């Protein structure tokens, strides 16, 4: 995390920045972000253990874990609770709800990771992390950031869709339009010069125009 010398305040990671490195204790042992080079990472924070909305989110993440694994994605949870609290909570979820949490949950009691990623928003809470989601690519670059308030749970399906969109865009050099989901048409990059515009106008643009051209991935 960089430092704004003029204002003496931390600069939060932005899309396209290197993901801030860290080493931390988790429910599955000590990990470093660098352990996951070559994989996608979804790093998400929750306000606190043993809270109702957070529990529903963890259950939903756990139930979708195999879908994330199919996409070469490692889930990493985090809150500023202690390791014993995390262990007690995930054990409780397994015993009472019948769901095992298969991914590491980072214990960030000293807020070291939370501060690097801007997960604590004083306007919402001085001590709890808001519901942040950071999608980090295999080169350890931040590719997407989502913030949710303390009182609204996340859509896990939307996070999966976001990962699908990023991976599809990278693989095929295209973009994902609004409400896109796998199997839908994608958008070709817009022309960057007059020659490209003229070439585009000579093609089939039914229902679109030179700056907006959709296609099927198999085209």
From TrEMBL:
Assigned GO CC terms: cytosol
Task: Name all Thioredoxin domain ranges.
Answer: 13-168
Q: Where in the cell is it found?
A: Cytoplasm
Q: What is its main location?
A: cytoplasm
* UniProt entry tagged with the keyword NAD: no
Q: Where does substrate bind?
A: 131
List GO molecular-function terms, semicolon-separated. Answer: thioredoxin peroxidase activity
Keywords noted in UniProt? Antioxidant, Cytoplasm, Disulfide bond, Oxidoreductase, Peroxidase, Redox-active center
What does this protein's UniProt record list under function?
Thiol-specific peroxidase that catalyzes the reduction of hydrogen peroxide and organic hydroperoxides to water and alcohols, respectively. Plays a role in cell protection against oxidative stress by detoxifying peroxides.
Q: Which family does it belong to?
A: Belongs to the peroxiredoxin family. AhpC/Prx1 subfamily. Belongs to the peroxiredoxin family. Prx6 subfamily.
Q: How does it assemble?
A: Homodecamer. Pentamer of dimers that assemble into a ring structure.
Q: What is this protein called?
A: Peroxiredoxin
The organism is: Melghirimyces profundicolus
């Amino acid at each position: 995390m960089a430092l704004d010398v003029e204002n003496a305040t931390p600069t939060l990671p932005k899309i396209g920045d290197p993901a801030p490195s860290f080493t931390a204790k988790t429910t599955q042992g000590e990990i470093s972000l660098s352990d996951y080079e070559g994989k996608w990472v979804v790093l998400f924070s929750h306000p606190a253990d043993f809270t109702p909305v957070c529990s529903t989110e963890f259950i939903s993440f756990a139930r979708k874990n195999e879908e994330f694994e199919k996409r070469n994605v490692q889930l990493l949870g985090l809150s500023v609770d202690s390791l014993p609290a995390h262990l007690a909570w995930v054990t409780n979820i397994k015993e009472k709800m019948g769901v095992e949490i298969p991914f590491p949950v980072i214990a960030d009691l000293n807020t070291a990771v939370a501060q690097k990623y801007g997960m604590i928003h004083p306007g919402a809470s001085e001590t709890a992390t808001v519901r942040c989601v950071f999608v980090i690519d295999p080169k350890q670059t931040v590719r997407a950031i989502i913030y949710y308030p303390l009182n609204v749970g996340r859509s896990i399906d939307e996070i999966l869709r976001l990962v699908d969109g990023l991976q599809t865009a990278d693989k095929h050099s295209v973009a994902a339009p609004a409400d896109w989901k796998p199997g839908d048409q994608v958008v070709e990059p817009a022309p960057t010069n007059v020659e490209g515009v003229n070439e585009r106008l000579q093609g089939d643009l039914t229902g679109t125009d030179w700056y907006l051209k959709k296609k099927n991935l198999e085209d």
